[in-house]
From TrEMBL:
Keywords: Acyltransferase, Transferase. This is GNAT family N-acetyltransferase. The keyword Transferase applies. InterPro entries: Acyl_CoA_acyltransferase (IPR016181), Diverse_Substrate_AcTransf (IPR051016), GNAT_dom (IPR000182).
């Protein structure tokens, strides 16, 4: 697919649809491989479909896609946050990924600009995300946009056995 004469069409940034789930799953796996975490991906296409397009209400997570010539080549997966300090919502960018052969074409910037526009339009006060400390190209890209590192903040995570152990403590009190 392309413009007449075989030229590529303009890239499109749009909300993901249920038909995009296979491409989203492929991109999630590609992102995990890039981040050296392929072993950590347990999500199935059905898991993504259920999270992004639940049958019983509004989704708790959303996705935008970057499309070139009818093919999904990038994604931004995000959800709402809330700041008690500002009393306003924000957007947490869980994943931003553009296929390597499409990097440098502005798609990542367009995905982030779309999130920023959505945040401003809705009165949200921030868009936040994490980046691996070794991912120098991504860090340079984010800095070029004006993103500020929050060096004093450290992400914490409960998962696996630790999550189960902490949950059992609550259950024991009930």
């Amino acid at each position: 697919m392309g413009a007449p004469g075989g030229a590529p069409t303009s890239p499109t940034i749009r909300p993901a649809t249920v038909d995009d789930v296979p491409a989203l799953h492929r991109l999630v796996r590609d992102l995990a491989a890039y981040e050296r975490q392929s072993h950590a991906v347990t999500a199935t296409p059905q898991d993504l479909r259920d999270a992004l397009f639940p049958e019983d209400g509004d989704p708790a997570v959303c996705a935008d896609v970057a499309e070139v010539d009818g093919e999904v080549v990038g994604l931004a997966v995000w959800f709402l946050t809330f700041s008690t300090w500002t009393g306003q919502h924000g957007i947490w960018l869980e994943d931003l990924f553009v296929e390597p052969e499409h990097r440098g074409t502005g798609l990542g910037r367009m995905l982030l600009e779309g999130l920023a526009a959505r945040a401003v339009e809705r009165g949200y006060t921030r868009v936040e995300w994490t980046v691996l400390d070794w991912n120098a190209p991504a860090i340079r890209f984010y800095r070029s946009l004006g993103a500020e590192p929050l060096e004093e903040w450290r992400t914490q995570r409960l998962h696996g056995d630790a999550l189960a152990r902490v949950a059992r403590r609550a259950e024991q009190r009930a």
